[in-house]
């Protein structure tokens, strides 16, 4: 059985932006501030390094309901025993990923178009990351930004819960939820800020307000 998960405030860790605080410290502080999911996204690291980092974050998350996600690396996801794997359109197929991770690990997939959203198989994929909403220097090779209308269209075409990503800041919470997404994913709005706990708290408050309408 897959664990329940909450996409509301999804932190994606980036080693280059996490310089004032380590990735571990950023995760700890963000969770204290309200983050509901934490993704290890460390493109330059080896599988062994990703496993070690995920294990230390897993210790920090013990006793919470926060979902720990590994980006791309199936081997690291399995070895570290994380809750979820997140893959992109250019990674292995969701069918193959599901086969390798088994029935119990949550599987997330990035999509950038209505076509890709419609192609999502809800038997295999548990949630979708939709973006980028805006251009962002955090991911220089990102696809064409969707904007708010594009986000709403892609979200509407998705058969599973969605989390919006790409250039999102506190002030965007109401538009994210108005577009129908179930959560917002951020990198720079938490990583690299002087106080990741305060940044997460501020985002969390905006999200609660946005949800309340
Ligand atoms: N995928 C699409 S945009 C993005 C990823 C990982 C980066 C988002 O970073 P930021 O700093 O929240 O704009
Ligand atoms: Mg990927």
From TrEMBL:
InterPro entries: Aldolase_TIM, ThiamineP_synth_sf, ThiamineP_synth_TenI, TMP_synthase. Residues 9-190 form the Thiamine phosphate synthase/TenI domain. It catalyses: 2-(2-carboxy-4-methylthiazol-5-yl)ethyl phosphate + 4-amino-2-methyl-5-(diphosphooxymethyl)pyrimidine + 2 H(+) = thiamine phosphate + CO2 + diphosphate; 4-methyl-5-(2-phosphooxyethyl)-thiazole + 4-amino-2-methyl-5-(diphosphooxymethyl)pyrimidine + H(+) = thiamine phosphate + diphosphate; 2-[(2R,5Z)-2-carboxy-4-methylthiazol-5(2H)-ylidene]ethyl phosphate + 4-amino-2-methyl-5-(diphosphooxymethyl)pyrimidine + 2 H(+) = thiamine phosphate + CO2 + diphosphate. Coiled coil: none annotated. 2-[(2R,5Z)-2-carboxy-4-methylthiazol-5(2H)-ylidene]ethyl phosphate binds at residues 136-138, 167, 187-188. Binds 1 Mg(2+) ion per subunit. It comes from the Bacteria. Its EC number is 2.5.1.3. Keywords: Magnesium, Metal-binding, Thiamine biosynthesis, Transferase. 4-amino-2-methyl-5-(diphosphooxymethyl)pyrimidine binds at residues 39-43, 71, 110, 139. The keyword Metal-binding applies. The keyword Secreted does not apply. Belongs to the thiamine-phosphate synthase family. NCBIfam families: thiE. Condenses 4-methyl-5-(beta-hydroxyethyl)thiazole monophosphate (THZ-P) and 2-methyl-4-amino-5-hydroxymethyl pyrimidine pyrophosphate (HMP-PP) to form thiamine monophosphate (TMP). This is Thiamine-phosphate synthase. It comes from Dyella jejuensis.
